[in-house]
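Continuing the series of single-chain predictions for the mutant panel. This is the parent chain; the variants come on the following pages.
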Amino acid sequence: MLKSEKTKQFIVATVAPIFNKKGYAATSLADLTKATGLTKGSIYGNFKDKNQVAQEAFKYNLSELSNKVKVYQSGQTGAYALLQAFFEFYEKEYAVVMENGGCAMLNAAVDSDYTNPELRTLVKDAFGSWFQTIADLVVKGQEQGTIKNGVDAGVFSGMCLALIEGSLLLTKATGDSRYIKNNIKLLIRKLEEIKA
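Parent structure:
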């Protein structure tokens, strides 16, 4: 690996948690130089501008979150079991998500509304990907005979994302974990209701 690529990776891995906790708009170049120990010239020698660093930080934060979910799903083969593991991740690891500043997708979505159109597109694509993954698992579960036919995969997927993301937002804003705990329990019940 080239030294410039290692430097880029170092910058992104170091500043990604800062963007997620402090905000993509509020994180300053001074925050980046302080965290990395690099000069402004070193950072801008590797990235076009702060927005590009923010985009790469979002990709990194999203990858970290996705990898944690995959740990819970590892060893599961059926679609129904994969959905159970997805909810189990949020049931057991929501505190870790909160300690890391909250959901990377939610934080970036709120922060990029009017300030970083490229980041907003990445966030939109990420939500679309997660939506499709859940919907595909519902359809696959129906094909495998573990999820009832007639369940609308898109409606179920949208409900899952809205409840998870909304609950994380309320938990973060209020400091009250009952929102995420109660809604994950609700999602687990909903999953049990659609079991074939």
